[in-house]
Amino acid sequence: MKDLLGQFKEIFEKNETFREELMKFDRTVKSPDWGFFVGVLRLIQGRILEDMVSREHTLLDEKEKDVAQRTYYNINQILVFLMSPAGWIKKRSKWSQVLSNQMGKVKPNQRKEQ
Asked: I need a surface site. Which of 4, 10, 17, 26 has the fewest CB within 10 A?
């Protein structure tokens, strides 16, 4: 799963059209009309958390618990990506400057190389 999302990061870094479309999606997800969708994704995150702290989960043997935790982690990464693709990529990419510029958020301490 990590490789799957990593591929999105690589495509984002190399493909201008994909980057532009992903930025459009990111802006769309942040619009008020998508509040319900994002709320559902957050609800799923909450249910995962509830399950991870449940008695049933804590009683699993170590191997089963490890598999469940890895699965939940990967699902959570997908949910975070869907809620904020640009934010997810920004945290994992050398393209934080590109994202900042495209989103109009250039930090004062970011200067161009001479």
From this structure: 17
